[in-house]
């Protein structure tokens, strides 16, 4: 349970508890899984800047946002710019092609985790070419390929059978992008008493296929899966990035209430 202080969520405690669970799950992971210790991305969507400052103050650097406009506002917030100079923003929501130019110039943009088709990859590649021209220190834009492992129509992501082809397109046709691995937003509420999470199994299969096809070391290709309700299980399967929101920041308001 998240402790509340004076009616507010204790973000610092939430992060410490989450990191402790990550350590515990990582220690229990099978030695046959060659993957690094998972990185925590604190999902701060719909939450105020004050809570991000709290998390940053104890060393949390990676924060995830789902909505372009909200990320624009937070990344340019004077308090963030002044007090969080090495914050790393991860965009983890659906990115439309017409929003690309709004997001690539944001300060401290670290990664786009939701590249779901070649059109978006191509658009990001072209946009980052312009960023590099203005900021020579900006090398490649970090991205992950989003895969729709659950087959749900409302979920974005390339189909698992196309994951290798999309990875090939990004790595061979998009020189301004650096593809670090794969990502999924699995079906919510899997009952683990019935067996392993099929979304995690499917994403790890895609991961193996890409590593095999392109002769990549499995430990070098990131796997972003697992959220507040299942990140412990995701780590046991091989996740290297977990995206945790409500366990840290408390329940989120709905988008139209944010």
TrEMBL record:
Superkingdom, natural source: Eukaryota
Pfam families listed in its UniProt record: Ala_racemase_N
Listed InterPro entries: Ala_racemase_N, PLP-binding_barrel, PyrdxlP_homeostasis
PROSITE patterns xref list: UPF0001 (PS01211)
Record PANTHER family: PROLINE SYNTHETASE CO-TRANSCRIBED BACTERIAL HOMOLOG PROTEIN, PYRIDOXAL PHOSPHATE HOMEOSTASIS PROTEIN
NCBIfam families per UniProt: YggS family pyridoxal phosphate-dependent enzyme
Family: Belongs to the pyridoxal phosphate-binding protein YggS/PROSC family.
Full protein name: Pyridoxal phosphate homeostasis protein
Classification lineage: Eukaryota, Metazoa, Ecdysozoa, Arthropoda, Hexapoda
């Amino acid at each position: 349970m998240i402790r509340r202080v004076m009616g507010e969520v204790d973000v610092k405690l939430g992060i410490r508890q989450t990191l402790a669970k990550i350590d515990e799950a990582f220690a229990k992971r099978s030695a046959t899984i060659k993957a690094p210790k998972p990185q925590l991305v604190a999902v701060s969507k719909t939450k105020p800047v004050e809570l991000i400052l709290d998390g940053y103050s104890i060393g949390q650097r990676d924060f995830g946002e789902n909505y372009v406009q909200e990320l624009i506002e937070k990344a340019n917030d004077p308090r963030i710019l002044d007090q969080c100079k090495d914050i790393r923003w991860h965009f983890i929501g659906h990115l439309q092609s017409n929003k690309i130019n709004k997001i690539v110039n944001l300060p401290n943009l670290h990664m786009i985790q939701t590249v779901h088709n070649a059109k978006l990859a191509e658009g990001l590649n072209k946009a980052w070419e312009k960023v590099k021209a203005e900021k020579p220190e900006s090398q490649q834009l970090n991205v992950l390929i989003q895969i729709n492992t659950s087959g749900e129509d409302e979920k974005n992501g390339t189909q698992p059978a196309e994951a290798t082809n999309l990875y090939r397109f990004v790595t061979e046709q998009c020189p301004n992008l650096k593809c670090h691995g794969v990502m999924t937003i699995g079906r919510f509420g899997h009952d683990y008493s019935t067996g392993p999470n099929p979304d995690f199994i499917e994403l790890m299969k895609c991961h193996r296929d890409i590593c095999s096809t392109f002769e990549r070391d499995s430990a070098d290709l990131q796997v972003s899966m697992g959220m507040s309700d299942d990140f412990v299980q995701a780590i046991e399967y091989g996740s290297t990035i977990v995206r945790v929101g409500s366990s840290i920041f408390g329940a989120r308001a709905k988008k139209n209430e944010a």
